[in-house]
Amino acid sequence: MTAHDGLAYYVFHTKYWRPQLRPTILFYHGFPEGPSAWIEQMRYFERQNFNVISAPLRGYISSYIPKNGVYRADEQAKDIIKLVSLMKMSSEEGAELHLVGHDIGSLMVQMAAKMQPALFESVTLIGEPEYKVILEQNDGSRYSVQNAR
Hints:
The chain is an alpha/beta fold. It has three helices and seven strands; from the N terminus they run ββαβαβαβββ. The strands form two sheets. Strands 1-3-2-4-5 form a five-stranded mixed β-sheet, sandwiched between helices.
């Protein structure tokens, strides 16, 4: 699969993928982990009859390094939204999607949920950094992130 700016997606997911037939949990890791950090949680929730998927943030695996060097939070949030669309797992598609983020991954999850709230049934943030996500457009295209301290 290809991201919105040409990056190749690499994800871990349930063996029997059925997003419209059972709820899905989409996991995003923190620093310095990668998608495999969620393996135990994925195994648990798969046994509970959930679809589970874990995806990388930009730069955490070699196939997911942007050529233009853009790692901004708003671009990574767009990556999440595009993945949801590509895998047909949004609430709008008849699927029940729960989004989970850890550490810096929770920042991207938060921003994606604020950009497209109708896509997600729920959002869970674990060990989130102290950031305030501001979605007011500053220059017509960007979203800003501020330290909450």
